[in-house]
């Protein structure tokens, strides 16, 4: 009986830790990455990432009631310009320019999301989209 309780307790602990990491941490597991990118692009009305995008990083924050995804990638200036032209919410959007940093604001977002921002600085793009 004691052995069964220890096994059950251990399994419950593992499930709780995994649940916490899955829903409340900033970790995006490899099997979640494609869906996180798709969701972020949908919320922002953005085109698919450039085929030659490099150093793609995906993070998340929030809880069960709100979610923010942050995607970073590097690409050539030409690829980024093409991506902006193909993105319905960026192509006619005038960015705020501060030095070499261009910030596109997307409020409200698509599909009932809150929206967010897209920052372009040299060859690096950072997308931050939220839903609540």
UniProtKB/TrEMBL annotation:
**The protein's name in its UniProt record:** Uncharacterized protein
Q: Which domain of life is it from?
A: Bacteria
Please give the organism.
Flavobacterium fontis
